[in-house]
Amino acid sequence: MIAVVQRVSEASVNIAGSVIGKIEGGVLLLLGIEEADNQEDISWLSKKVVNLRIFNDEAGIMNKSLIEVGGNILIVSQFTLHASTKKGNRPSYIKAAKPDVAIPMYERFIRETEQNLGRKIQTGEFGADMKVQLTNDGPVTIIINTKDKK
């Protein structure tokens, strides 16, 4: 799994003119799932994201987690995170999981993240043509690949 974690002051997802997910203060997480991902990747990444210390403490130092600041999460699926650009100019998405694998994993990731955070989170819609808006706070953008965890 690859996650692009962006600290945001606000973020939303729009499909066909309707807002389906919106947060104020927290994290916009773009999530790419590949065929080789498993439950261990889901658990590790979910815990990492909710405990990642990317929010300022009283001294202005990034020392607090999403849990500690009571922040929100907006999760958006994004298969293009697994694009291979090694050959030619047209990206290949061969490593990205097909919907029959990716959708159940995406849904498990959402449920596990809600459990780890202790409340409901906002999401996009898997496979939809989404318009994502955000105000990156900092800016803070971190890329996490579960294959690099060891």
Automatic annotation (TrEMBL):
Keyword Transmembrane among UniProt keywords: no
Compartments it resides in: Cytoplasm
E.C. designation(s): 3.1.1.96, 3.1.1.-
InterPro entries hit by this protein: Daa-tRNA_deacyls_DTD, DTD-like_sf
Catalytic activity: a D-aminoacyl-tRNA + H2O = a tRNA + a D-alpha-amino acid + H(+); glycyl-tRNA(Ala) + H2O = tRNA(Ala) + glycine + H(+)
SUPFAM superfamilies: DTD-like
GO molecular function, one term: D-aminoacyl-tRNA deacylase activity
Keywords, comma-separated and alphabetical: Cytoplasm, Hydrolase, RNA-binding, tRNA-binding
Sequence motif Gly-cisPro motif, important for rejection of L-amino acids, location on chain: 138-139
Pfam families (alphabetical): Tyr_Deacylase
Record-linked Gene3D superfamilies: D-tyrosyl-tRNA(Tyr) deacylase
Entry comment, domain topic: A Gly-cisPro motif from one monomer fits into the active site of the other monomer to allow specific chiral rejection of L-amino acids.
Family: Belongs to the DTD family.
Quaternary structure, from the entry: Homodimer.
Function: An aminoacyl-tRNA editing enzyme that deacylates mischarged D-aminoacyl-tRNAs. Also deacylates mischarged glycyl-tRNA(Ala), protecting cells against glycine mischarging by AlaRS. Acts via tRNA-based rather than protein-based catalysis; rejects L-amino acids rather than detecting D-amino acids in the active site. By recycling D-aminoacyl-tRNA to D-amino acids and free tRNA molecules, this enzyme counteracts the toxicity associated with the formation of D-aminoacyl-tRNA entities in vivo and helps enforce protein L-homochirality.
Name of the protein: D-aminoacyl-tRNA deacylase
Natural source organism: Splendidivirga corallicola
